[in-house]
Design brief:
Chains: A alpha/beta, B alpha/beta, C mainly alpha
Number of domains of chain B: 2
Shape of chain A: elongated
Radius of gyration of chain A: 28 Å
Structural class of chain B: alpha/beta
Largest interface: A-C, 40 and 46 residues
CATH topology of the largest domain in chain A: ABC transporter involved in vitamin B12 uptake, BtuC
Oligomer: heterotrimer
CATH superfamily of the largest domain in chain B: P-loop containing nucleotide triphosphate hydrolases
Strand content of chain B: 25-35%
Number of helices of chain A: 25
CATH class of the largest domain in chain B: Alpha Beta
Chain lengths: 600, 237, 314
């Protein structure tokens, strides 16, 4: 593909750009040590923005949290006399608490509205600061500068900030290599699909928001102690926009993106003004130059390079996808090991649907449908367009709730439950249009499916414990095995979006299988496949049946359906109009009428 | 033979999927041609390519002798080709009257009153509900509105994408009757349908699509009783 | 709270008038903003910067060149339309690469960010050109002495306020007529409802979008010059106050809903004025009110009072 050929050149340019930014920043720090503190704090704020933007949450709350952090630590230091190493973390924790509370309501909102709400949050913080002069010293923080222990910070100064920043970078890096990192990347691309992989998207977003608030609070607290005096205007709207700029310019695809962005946007205006100022004297007084450059950089970045600098680097995915070492996967331990396996057989039907109905306004998409699915059998669901097949699948996987009726899965009612819980209980699905996570490798995509079955905690990932590393290796081995079963092992390291359509469909099935399901819902798996591929798919599905899986296939490819299914249900206008073996169903008059159209 | 619409070796791709692989056919003036086939066969894709919503990868689309492949959608409408898209795509927050009025957009209001009378005669229900919001109409009424709106442009060729979709059986036959009436008044019709029987019932000729290729074409009466066609839908018995 | 204030009808009437004129300004500003959102589903965060530049345009025409009020108004509205159209071509259209029918839903954010960039540039350039000191209109433009109506408990109403109320009502009526009764206005509503359907009707969607920006920008310009005449305080930073209020009004009235913007504008204006008047310490709260309303609306009724926006995830 064209993109791949250009990649090495683009990546080289990206490395050069990064090197330039870093050298510019180092020069800046040497030239004037005060700037280094500012730079590090901006970098930290960039990380704060990354935490949310990486999950595609357009939160502009970092400035507001930084303000809270700054004032909280200043108040704790001055009024309560807390030493630096206590007041700063305490301020961060206060921000975290606030984030948990407002996150509960704010994170429900869609993109643009979330952005507005978090902007509003920032303004409310600013106004609150002005309105509580007793606590905050009013708009200019007057009574906070006496007794301020900024001597301590002056001495330890930027070094302590740098250490904390380095630690945070490590944590972000370690997270990106864990299942949490994969989950966040999955949410970034497609939150709905992530849900059906067993990822609790709501919890993940709250965690991201919390992390963002804690880091911003830290940055604000450091700022307060470094600068020694506070002003309500320090963190107003303009600041929130600056921080957004770091993330957009640097790119929110990788943790180092916003760092580069912060480095660039902090250093560039100063250097230009000083550099050009010596040649073009009038520029020295051109105070608006930094702002104009920031604005231009923002526009140019978003129009021409929306992924930012980070997107230009070679994909870490292609390195992730390397085959795990041969020793990592022992034949025996592969399917059992430390990964959870499916529980033993259940008596009676796995799934029972009773009188399931779904109406949208006046339209009856599904009407009183009954169905029972038993272990180890393959069911087909067919019907003309608009018959209700996709509606039924969405109801089963938890992406939608019925208007009436029951869905009993493994003996418990699941209608209306969250999709991620349903996925974790063993009901997996694939999608009609192969919704893979394009920015991840094929192997990683499948690994996302393993999410709920991996038991290591995030802390374990941070500490790189042996148990964590072992589990990751086993996970990758199992993912590879699943790909191998579908004949896709050589594609493991490829980027998912480079695959052919047919291959993508099969990777999707592998990913759904990784969740360890008892029942697999396949939504038009053969769409876009030719006869040879369809036949291979049919053989594979029969193989799954032998492994003990129950399968429900929605399809239009009649050859496939008739060839593999034990029982078929035919829907038309939301109602079940026929059911039985393939032979029985294809002879039924009603089915013929449904497909070819009735005579009036 | 040069018909009103000539499709030559049309190829269409969505990303890496080839939705149409070299489809060729023609539609003569005054005909009703029905395009039938299983889901995913490429029927809707053909119409989207003709009306300019998606760009063909290769091939020619000749309308009235002029190659319109690659032209912008609104320019194609001005040439006299109107489409009633799948799912109707009516403008819900606008009234029935406003929807119809917009149908005559390309004629800049000339003769719009006369066209409106004709549409009202064809669909009396729309006249009754003139000031109602289009979003509050029933499915059948919305379909009537969508067709009426397309007719307001007085097109030479009307493309209909699955007009019977989502409609109750009773309404379906009345919609098809109406389509036959539309042809009587001189408009050529290319109809894409899932309901093969009723579509072939009013059509002169049929085109059977499968997997992005034209499987068969011929007089509709012949196709209805052709076992190959049944197989195309339901697979090998 | 001073309870005697409640019993004073003159005070009430004064605040009513002040609140309505303030609200009228918010309404005119928000109408343009919501129109653009309705058609493109994006927040044009450079609307406030446009507003500010038009105030300067009006000032340049009236205070510097000495032309009379109608010229100033015209200049403001024309420059507003021009700036907004420029924004469409520079900041928004390049992002619609897939063509007028529009692409991925995930990219509702890029245009917003692009407009933020544009806004920063516009404000900075204004600062560079005009500096930070306040510009004012000379008294010849509009006599600042207010009318005092003895018959109505000594109500004070300035010429600026009268102009604002009159102009706003006229603009609102004109916009309403335009949107509802003209071919172009109906086309705008069509594009706002569905770009694909509009294409199939033969509507040149890109041109309609440009028209929308023209109208929206002109409204921003009108708001700009009217605010300038009222406050007589023209600075490059004057957009920031109204920007967040504009957001609050638009959320209040429902995104894309022009009548809602008018209603929301008046509501916010009245609530702000009455809070300052009747609540002790109210003038400090003034800034917070808009944001409070914004917050509460997004939490309680995100689709707005008159609804259309789909604010929450399904």
């Amino acid at each position: 593909m064209r993109a791949n050929r250009a990649r090495p050149r683009v990546a080289a340019a990206a490395w050069i750009a990064a090197a330039l930014v870093i050298s510019a920043d180092l020069y800046l720090c040497i030239r004037d040590p005060r700037d280094s503190g500012r730079l590090l704090i901006n970098a930290m704020l960039g990380l704060s923005a990354f935490a949310t933007l990486h999950a595609r949450l357009l939160s502009l709350a970092s400035a507001g949290f930084a303000a809270i952090g700054a004032y909280a630590s200043a108040i704790l230091a001055v009024k309560l006399g807390l030493p630096v190493y206590l007041s700063i973390p305490a301020a961060a924790l206060i921000c975290g608490a606030v984030a948990l509370v407002i996150g509960l309501v704010v994170l429900r909102l869609k993109d643009v509205y979330l952005a507005i709400c978090t902007l509003g949050f920032g303004e409310i913080v600013r106004v609150a600061i002005i309105l509580l002069p007793g606590l905050t010293g009013g708009p200019t923080g007057a009574n906070l500068s006496t007794g301020f222990p900024y001597e301590a910070m002056r001495r330890a100064g930027p070094a302590s900030i740098a250490i904390v920043l380095a630690l945070l970078c490590y944590l972000f890096w370690a997270t990106s290599k864990s299942k949490a990192g994969r989950a966040l990347r999955a949410i970034r691309e497609n939150p709905e699909v992530a849900q059906t992989m067993g990822i609790d998207v709501v919890a993940a977003k709250n965690m991201a928001f919390l992390a963002s608030a804690l880091i911003a609070g830290l940055a604000g607290a450091f700022y307060a102690h470094t600068v020694g005096s506070l002003d309500a205007g320090d963190f107003k709207f303009g600041r929130a926009v600056d921080i957004l700029g770091y993330a957009v310019l640097g790119g929110s695809g990788a943790w180092f993106g916003p760092l580069l962005g912060a480095g660039l946007l902090t250093a560039l205006p100063i250097l230009i003004r000083d550099g050009l100022g010596s040649s073009f004297g009038f520029l020295k007084d051109f105070a608006q130059l930094p702002n104009i450059l920031s604005g231009l950089a923002l526009m140019i970045a978003i129009i021409f390079a929306p992924g930012g600098l980070a997107a230009l680097f070679s994909r870490p995915a292609s390195r992730e996808g390397e085959r795990p070492a041969a020793g990592a996967g022992n034949a025996q331990s592969r399917s059992s090991g430390t990964l959870d396996t499916a529980p033993n057989a259940v008596h009676g039907p796995l799934l029972r649907i009773s009188r399931l109905s779904r109406s949208f306004g006046g339209l009856k998409a599904l009407s009183e449908v009954d169905l029972e699915i038993e272990q180890g059998k393959i069911y087909g669901l067919i019907g003309p367009n608009g018959a209700g097949k996709t509606t039924l699948i969405n109801l089963l996987s938890g992406l939608d709730a019925p208007s009436s009726g029951k869905i009993e899965w493994l003996g418990r009612e699941i209608q209306g439950r969250s999709a991620w819980r349903i996925a974790r209980s063993g009901l997996a699905r694939s999608y009609q249009h192969a919704q893979l996570f394009g920015e991840m490798s094929v192997l990683e995509n499948v690994a996302v499916g393993l999410h709920a079955r991996l038991r290591s905690s995030l802390v374990g990932a941070w500490l790189r414990l042996p148990s964590f590393r072992r589990e990751e290796a086993e996970a990758m081995a199992e993912a590879l095995e699943l790909l191998g079963a579908l004949g896709l092992a050589e594609l493991a390291g490829e980027s998912a979006e480079a695959l052919s359509y047919g291959d993508r469909r099969r990777v999707e099935i592998a990913r759904a299988l990784a969740t360890g399901p008892r029942l697999l819902l396949l939504d038009e798996p053969a769409a876009g496949m030719n006869e040879v591929e369809t036949a291979a798919l049919g053989r594979f599905i029969l193989g799954l049946k032998e492994r003990g899986l129950a399968i429900l296939i929605v399809e239009h490819h009649m050859d496939l359906i008739m060839g593999v299914c034990d029982e078929i249900l035919v829907l038309d206008f939301g109602r079940a109009i026929a059911r039985g073996s393939p032979a029985e169903v294809s002879r039924e008059r009603a089915v013929l009428d449904a497909y070819l159209g009735s005579d009036s | 033979m040069s018909g009103l619409l000539e499709i030559e070796a049309l190829f269409l791709r969505y990303g890496q999927v080839e939705a149409l692989s070299g489809v060729s056919f023609s539609v003569g003036e005054g005909e009703i041609v029905a395009m039938i086939g299983a889901n995913g066969a490429g029927k809707s894709s053909t119409l989207l390519a003709i009306s300019g919503i998606v760009r063909a990868a290769a091939g020619r689309i000749l309308f009235g002798g002029r190659d319109i492949a690659g032209l912008r959608a609104d320019k194609i409408v001005r040439l006299g080709l109107s489409q009633v898209p799948e799912g109707r795509a009516i403008l819900a927050p606008l009234t029935v009257a406003e929807n119809l009025e917009l149908g005559a957009w390309t004629r800049r209001g000339r003769g719009a009153a006369r066209s409106l009378e004709r549409v009202h005669a064809l669909f009396p229900r729309l006249a009754e509900r003139s000031d109602q919001l289009a979003g509050s109409l029933s499915g059948g009424e919305q379909q009537m509105l969508a067709i009426g709106r397309a007719l307001m442009a007085e097109p030479r060729l009307l493309l209909l994408d699955e007009p019977s979709m989502g409609l109750a059986p009773k309404l379906v036959s009345s919609i098809f009757k109406t389509i036959a009436e539309i042809r009587e008044s001189g408009t050529t019709v290319l109809l894409v349908e899932q309901n093969a029987r009723q579509a072939l019932g009013i059509a002169d000729r049929g085109l059977v699509l499968a997997h992005g290729r034209l499987l068969k074409q011929g007089p509709s009466a012949d196709l209805l009783s052709d076992p190959e066609v049944i197989e195309a839908f339901l697979g090998k018995a | 709270m001073d309870l005697s204030l409640l019993a004073d009808p003159g005070f009430l009437l004064q605040n009513l008038v002040d609140g309505l004129s303030r609200g009228a300004l918010y309404g005119v500003y928000a109408m343009g903003f919501t129109l653009i959102f309705g058609v493109l589903d994006i927040l044009n965060l450079a609307h406030a910067a446009t507003f500010m530049w038009c105030a300067f345009a009006g000032w340049l025409v009236m205070a510097r060149s000495g032309l009379s009020l109608p010229f100033g108004l015209a200049a403001a509205m024309l420059s507003g339309g021009a700036i907004a159209v420029a924004l469409e071509f520079l900041a928004f259209r390049p992002l619609r690469r897939e063509g007028p029918a529009g692409g991925a839903a995930a990219d509702k954010l890029s245009p917003m960010i692009s407009s933020i960039g544009a806004s920063i540039i516009m404000v900075s350039v204004a600062e560079a050109c005009f500096g930070v000191e306040t510009r004012r209109f000379p008294d010849t433009v509009l006599d600042p002495k207010p009318f005092i109506i003895k018959a109505a408990w000594g109500l004070r109403i300035s010429r600026a306020q009268i102009l604002i109320l009159a102009a706003s009502v006229i603009l609102m009526a004109l916009l309403g007529l335009f949107i509802r009764r003209t071919r172009a206005g109906t086309a705008i509503r069509a594009v706002a409802a569905s770009r694909k359907a509009s294409l199939l009707l033969g509507i040149d969607v890109n041109s309609i979008i440009v028209l929308t920006f023209l109208v929206g920008g002109a409204l921003a310009g009108a708001a700009g010059i009217l605010v300038a005449l009222l406050t007589n305080n023209i600075v490059p930073g004057m957009g920031s106050q109204i920007e967040l209020r504009g957001l609050a009004v638009v959320i209040l009235g429902g995104m894309g809903n022009v009548e809602g913007a008018v209603l929301g504008g008046f509501l916010l204006g009245l609530v702000e004025t009455f809070t300052i008047a009747y609540l002790p310490g109210g003038s400090d709260l003034k800034d917070a009110i808009a944001f409070l309303i914004l917050f509460l609306m997004l939490l309680a009724k995100p689709d707005g009072l008159m609804g259309r926006g789909k604010a929450e995830r399904a």
